[in-house]
């Protein structure tokens, strides 16, 4: 069973996790800021190209579409410039560095073009890796063709800017409600490298911080697992030391109390037989019977104490559960009749084979059923269900009674040694049940049954097969 870590260790690990989260958040924020700066730089560069084109175009004396095409086609080579296109309001290319594309339409960009014309504001987008759908259509689109279709496309920044050009119409008569034909839209495609390595440095920082945090979290998880194992071993050592001390006490009690108690009980039985004829009203005999019963109760307590302190390691074997239940039912038959109680058994599947220590399981079920009988002084049914599940819970044994239920507010103490709410209880029965289940690697818990009474649920990790 895994032990929980002490509060200081949990606080330290939480602090490490919080620090890691803060560093990661700060790095991500830094990356986001760098992307904003990068966008501003690319926008400024695109706007500078647009202003230069406007200035040069206005110097054209004739201001014909051919002059605009000549200006774009002869634009100086720039290692960061991917493409340069001028559209009219219908998305038709009216100037391009490749004359073969003149008159083509770019339907994919028409929405942005109309937005730019309507708002007279720059619009932009980042194109990562894959080309837009229109890109593959080659000459049918306004986008440049690749010499090699398998060639990777570098990440690009694409800006659409309004061009205020007097003349250069070539668009036919202006219709009512049309955009002002003197406005064109310039599409500037820049390689992201045009903004320098401002975002690359932040991205690398984010990547390195992520690696460092991943390593830190891995080491922290390993440290937490190691500490948990260490504290589990320490708790087990303390438990073994406690059980060893308890065993010494039990041995002393067995020697100093049990043996004289047996002699006292035997002598009382002899006295009881002797005075039967001399005590007509039976008062002395009743005294002796009470003394014998109390002696037997003390004897059972010593037996439970010895069993609890000397519980051996389980000797696991395979055996049918229904046989054990029948054996316990037969053993308790007199007590069941006296209390007008019955055990209702349901085992699924029938003939279920259990892998466990049979003697310890016998004591476990016997203690639980006797505990249920003690909670039902007016009689009733004890429902015992055993279910074999394919899940990790394995075998589940559920025992419900129709008694008074769990003691309110004391549920968490039910399995503590020497805790009892009954006047004549030893407080060791349920503690012994917990130790038996724990030594088998299982769990046991108690809860109130839906219809009243108490319910005990035992889960054993290994299930049997019929």
Automatic annotation (TrEMBL):
SMART domains: HATPase_c, HisKA. Keywords: ATP-binding, Cell membrane, Kinase, Membrane, Nucleotide-binding, Phosphoprotein, Transferase, Transmembrane, Transmembrane helix, Two-component regulatory system. Its main location: membrane. It catalyses: ATP + protein L-histidine = ADP + protein N-phospho-L-histidine. It is an enzyme of class 2 (transferase). One of its GO terms (molecular function) is phosphorelay sensor kinase activity. This is histidine kinase. It comes from Heliomicrobium undosum. The lineage of its organism: Bacteria, Bacillati, Bacillota, Clostridia, Eubacteriales.
């Amino acid at each position: 069973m895994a032990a929980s870590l002490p509060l200081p260790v949990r606080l330290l690990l939480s602090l490490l996790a919080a620090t890691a989260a803060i560093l990661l958040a700060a790095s991500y924020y830094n990356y986001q800021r760098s992307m904003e700066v990068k966008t501003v730089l690319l926008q400024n560069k695109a706007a500078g190209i647009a202003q230069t084109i406007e200035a040069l175009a206005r110097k054209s004396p004739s201001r014909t579409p051919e002059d605009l095409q000549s200006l774009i086609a002869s634009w100086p080579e720039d290692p960061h410039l991917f493409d340069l296109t001028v559209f009219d309001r219908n998305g038709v290319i009216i100037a391009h560095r490749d004359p073969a594309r003149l008159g083509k339409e770019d339907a994919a960009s028409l929405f942005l073009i109309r937005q730019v014309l309507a708002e007279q504001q720059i619009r932009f987008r980042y194109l990562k890796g894959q080309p837009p759908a229109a890109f593959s259509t080659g000459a049918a689109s306004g986008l440049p063709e690749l010499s090699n279709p398998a060639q990777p496309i570098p990440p690009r920044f694409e800006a659409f800017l309004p061009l205020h050009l007097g003349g250069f119409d070539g668009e036919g008569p202006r219709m009512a409600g049309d955009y002002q034909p003197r406005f064109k839209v310039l599409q500037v495609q820049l390689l992201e490298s045009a903004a320098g390595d401002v975002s690359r440095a932040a991205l690398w920082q984010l990547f390195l911080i992520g690696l460092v945090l991943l390593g830190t979290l891995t080491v922290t998880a390993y440290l937490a697992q190691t500490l948990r194992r260490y504290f589990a071993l320490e708790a087990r050592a303390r438990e073994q030391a406690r059980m060893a001390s308890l065993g010494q006490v039990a041995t002393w009690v067995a020697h100093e109390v049990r043996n004289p108690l047996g002699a006292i009980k035997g002598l009382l039985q002899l006295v009881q037989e002797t005075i039967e004829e001399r005590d007509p009203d039976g008062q002395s005999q009743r005294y002796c019977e009470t003394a014998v019963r109390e002696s037997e109760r003390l004897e059972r307590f010593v037996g439970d104490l010895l069993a609890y302190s000397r519980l051996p390691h389980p000797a696991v074997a395979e055996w049918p559960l229904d046989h054990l239940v029948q054996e316990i039912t037969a053993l308790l038959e007199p007590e069941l009749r006296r209390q007008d109680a019955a055990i209702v058994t349901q085992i699924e599947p029938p003939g279920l084979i259990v892998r466990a220590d049979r003697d310890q399981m016998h004591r476990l079920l016997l203690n639980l059923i006797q505990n249920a009988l003690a909670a039902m002084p007016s009689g009733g049914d004890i429902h015992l269900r055993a279910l074999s599940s394919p899940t990790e819970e394995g075998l589940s044994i559920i025992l419900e009674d129709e008694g008074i239920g769990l003691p309110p507010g004391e549920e968490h103490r039910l399995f503590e040694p020497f805790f009892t709410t009954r006047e004549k209880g030893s407080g060791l029965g349920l503690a012994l049940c917990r130790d038996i289940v724990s030594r088998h690697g299982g769990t046991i818990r108690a809860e109130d049954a839906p219809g009243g009474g108490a319910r005990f649920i035992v889960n054993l990790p290994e299930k049997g097969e019929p």
